[in-house]
Amino acid sequence: QKTSNDLKVDYYVNNIEAALKAAQTYQPRKNNSDLLGNTQNSTTIDYGEFDFIVVGSGSSGSAFAARMSEIAKFNILLLEAGEFDDDLTKLPYLSTLFEISDRNWGYFSTPQQNACLGWKNRQCSFPQGKILGGSGTIDFLTYIRGNKADYDKWASLGNPGWSFNDVLPFFKKLENYQSDHINMNYRGFGGPVDVAYKIPMPNFTISSNAYSEIGIATIEDYNAQKQIGVSRIQRLTHFGERVSGSTAYVRRTFTRYNFNVTLGAFVTKILINNSTKTASGVEFVKRGITYRATARKEVIISAGVVNTPQLLMLSGIGPSNELSKHKIPVIADLPVGRGLRGNVYFDVYFSTNNTVPLISFEDGVREFLKGRGYLTGFQNSVSISFMNTRNNCTTVPNVELTYYAQETIEGQIPALINFIPEVEKFASSLNLHKDVFFEISLLHPKSRGNITLKSSNPSDFPNVNLGMFEEVDDIEVLYESAQIAKALLKTNATKYLNATLVNYDFCSDNEYDSKPYWYCAIKHVAYPSYHWSSSVKMGPKDDPNAVVDNKLRVYGIKKLRIVDRSAVPITLSGTYNPSALMIGEKAADMIKKEYGVST
Ligand SMILES: Cc1cc2nc3c(=O)[nH]c(=O)nc-3n(C[C@H](O)[C@H](O)[C@H](O)COP(=O)(O)OP(=O)(O)OC[C@H]3O[C@@H](n4cnc5c(N)ncnc54)[C@H](O)[C@@H]3O)c2cc1C
Q: How far apart are CA 445 and CA 524, in angstroms?
């Protein structure tokens, strides 16, 4: 006789196996025709009037909409193109699988000149969450807010209200940091977003000793006063399950009578009165039917770093030359889509002769159901470090290194294969049960990209030009970091691994381990991290690249704001979900005050 726990284990194991199988033959979405259905000849149905309409339930949109619904007299409509998050998205271990599913919009970059050479047609995958909770429901859960200096820079660019001291209260408000060593000057406790360490904690001592040998100290909490150093990894988990905008905010509040959450609703246009330059609502399509919703107070766009600029441009807000190309009448000539920027990852692999005992999926699930074990983390990540390859004295890092030890679970999640044959051969030769690797994140690239329209049809994906490595110095910083990764695996602490660098065969035209060899490898297999911003940049009115002001209002258009990561004008020394959540919290607080209410 099976116990109810056994049945739960069977349920998860069967679902995981089915999802892994489906991923093997998955074909990424190519356009939005599935969201639009057959809308031809259909009439538009009135969806009603709301005080605030929020487009996109990602990290920022979820936090924002849920906080706004605390005011009983505000009627909130949250529109999300994706569907509900599900039992599989609860499992942190499966995170990479969601890129290979319809929970991802399915974007690829435009062909890059100097990067993504290992990808077919030089086009890197650029995942974005299409699901309740947005990218935070498919992301890797690492929680790094960034450096104090990053936020101070944000404010110093002419954006009062966004310095570290201004944003800190909102980080504290959203957090429920679970640690025995909380510095309450910096960290929050009791908020909706759990930040936790994996149980049991991975063996951190080896990392700590290795870093100490190359002169890098261990620090307790990189989200407190000091960031440079090596630490354990903080993740957005609650008893081992994913925490996202959905779980922390929307699912806790959407039974409020004043909060309407509509899923499967693809917003195709912001309705704007051209003579008064005022946003009045949105048009959206759900299951082939077109609806119009009206906003009494404001329309809030939180559709993320790619879709927010696309939706603005489709609605007549964007660079006039770009809009005219697609015969879209210009309502506001603004530099939408310019200045896209984000972090870049490069993985450095080492093979070892060290084997680790493996556990089965079934045992992994049993542990997960107790809130612990391998499946509650993201691969076997052990430590994270922050350093500056150019300046030993600064407190601001330029790179982040995450160390991944050997995977200790049977099987392997398939990857989204879109590599050229030489790189595919390299990728399939990796054995993550034996190999270890450092994921290097270039935190402040100088290169810039942009988002432009392919056409005026919302069915077409926009062009996502990453501009990766257009500034060669970005490659140089990754090269410098790879030398640090090599040094770490030559320390006494890591000697037992007997690690040797995995050969990038596809660069064998260059002398092994020479600088040109590393440059070749970086240009082939470095990829856009998942931390991007600035496609609808915040800045003062005289900033030629600014689209929104420091109150997130779109210049020249009334009743329209952007509340998501696309507005952030800087890169951060961290991961981007914490600041996305913070923006939602801060925007809600700001707007409530403007309307004379508070909670
Ligand atoms: C694979 C991956 C891994 C990542 N790993 C980490 C990590 O480990 N740590 C970390 O801190 N950050 C990570 N990030 C980044 C982080 O998740 C994002 O920066 C953050 O979630 C962005 O929040 P957002 O609100 O700006 O946008 P999103 O969360 O992307 O939300 C946008 C929402 O709008 C919806 N939407 C878009 N267009 C429309 C439309 N027209 N109509 C209706 N709805 C629409 C989308 O479906 C989505 O739900 C990762 C991201 C990805 C994709």
A: 17
CB distance 266 to ligand 1 below 6 Å: yes
Whether 117 and 124 have beta carbons less than 8 Å apart is answered as no
- Write out the two tokens for 491: 């320390």
Angle at 506 (CA atoms; ends 479, 21), nearest 5 degrees: 100
* d(CA 575, ligand 1 centre) in Å: 12
Residue 30 and residue 22: Cα distance in Å, rounded? 18
Tell which residue, 409, 411, 412, has the closest CA to residue 373.
409
Separation of CA 133 and ligand 1 centre (Å): 8
Residue 106 CB less than 6 A away from ligand 1: no
Average model confidence (pLDDT) across the chain: 96
Task: Return the ligand 1 atom nearest residue 104 CA.
Answer: 53
116 and 122 Cβ atoms separated by less than 8 Å: yes
Classify 287 as helix, strand or coil.
coil
Give me the count of residues in the chain: 599
What are the tens digits of pLDDT across the range 546-556? 999 999 999 99
With a cut of 80, say whether residue 42 has pLDDT above it.
no
Write the residue with the smallest CA distance to atom 3 of ligand 1: 139
Task: Give the list of residues 6+ apart from residue 199 with CB closer than 8 angstroms, or none.
Answer: 240, 371, 372, 373, 376
Q: Is the CB of 78 under 6 A from ligand 1?
A: no
Of all residues in the chain, the percent with pLDDT exceeding 70 is 100
CA distance 336 to 10: 49
Q: Is the dihedral of CA 68, 60, 160, 543 positive or negative?
A: negative
- Residue closest via CA to ligand 1's atom 28 equals 58
State residue 411's pLDDT score: 80
To test ligand 1's pocket by mutation, which of 552, 577, 579, 585 has the most ligand atoms within 8 angstroms of CB? 577
pLDDT tens across 292-339, in order? 999 999 999 999 999 999 999 999 999 999 999 999 999 999 999 999
Which among 250, 286, 273 is positioned nearest to 35, based on CA atoms? 286
Strands 338-351 and 436-442: antiparallel
pLDDT digits (tens, 9 = 90+) for 420-453: 999 999 998 998 899 999 999 999 999 999 999 9
Give the position, in ligand 1's atom list, of the atom nearest the Cα of 105: 47
Three-state secondary structure readout of 29-62 = CCCCHHHHCCCCCCCEEEEEEEEEEEECCCHHHH
Domains of the chain: 33-86+95-120+127-594 (3.50.50.60)
Residue 415 has pLDDT above 80, yes or no: no
User: Which residue(s) pair with 45 in the sheet?
Assistant: 291
Contact criterion met (CB below 8 Å) for 517 and 483: no
- pLDDT, one tens digit per residue, over 7-41 is 999 999 999 999 999 998 999 999 999 999 887 66
Residue 340 Cα, ligand 1 centroid: separation in angstroms?
Answer: 15
Reduce the secondary structure of 513-563 to three states and give it as a string. CCHHHHHHHHHHHCEEEEEEECCCCECCCCCCCCCECCCCEECCCECEEEC
Q: Quick one: pLDDT at residue 41?
A: 64
